[in-house]
Design goal:
Layout: E1 16-25, E2 28-38, E3 48-52, E4 71-72, H1 77-89, E5 93-98, H2 107-119
Parallel strand pairs: 3-5
Antiparallel strand pairs: 1-2, 1-4, 2-5
Length: about 120
């Protein structure tokens, strides 16, 4: 079976601001939400809501995980694919929410962290 690929040619991430709300608890890093906004339009409310499992490798550009303010995020492949969906459908502002805030790119490692976090009183 062939994997489907979203065509990314022509996607200019410089046409978008990508920001997120990052925080840490103990040794764990989290992201509460991610915003992807077109710099060409001033849309105040998201016109696309994206729900995903977890933030994966998403991280703040300035490595600020203090949870005090929204900060610019390093774009990853998933975010570029969301931008492509936005462009194809005329969306100007996407908000990405996750079922879990834990930033772990590998699903197998993500699942292994659930029990230790739960036993330490850290809710996903």
């Amino acid at each position: 079976m062939t994997k489907a690929k979203i065509y990314l040619k022509g996607v200019d991430i410089n046409d978008y601001t990508i920001t997120g709300f990052y925080y840490s608890v103990g040794e764990y890093n989290f992201r509460k939400y991610l915003n992807i906004k077109s710099i060409k339009d001033s849309c105040g409310v998201p016109d696309l809501m994206v729900i995903m499992m977890n933030p994966g490798s998403s991280s703040p550009i300035n490595e600020n995980d203090n949870g005090r303010f929204e900060t610019e995020a390093k774009p990853d492949v998933t975010q570029k694919q969301i931008i492509r969906v936005m462009e194809l459908n005329g969306y100007k502002y996407a908000r990405v929410l996750n079922l879990s805030d834990l930033r772990e790119p590998k699903s197998s490692c993500f699942y292994k962290e659930i029990a230790p976090m739960d036993s330490n009183g850290i809710n996903l």
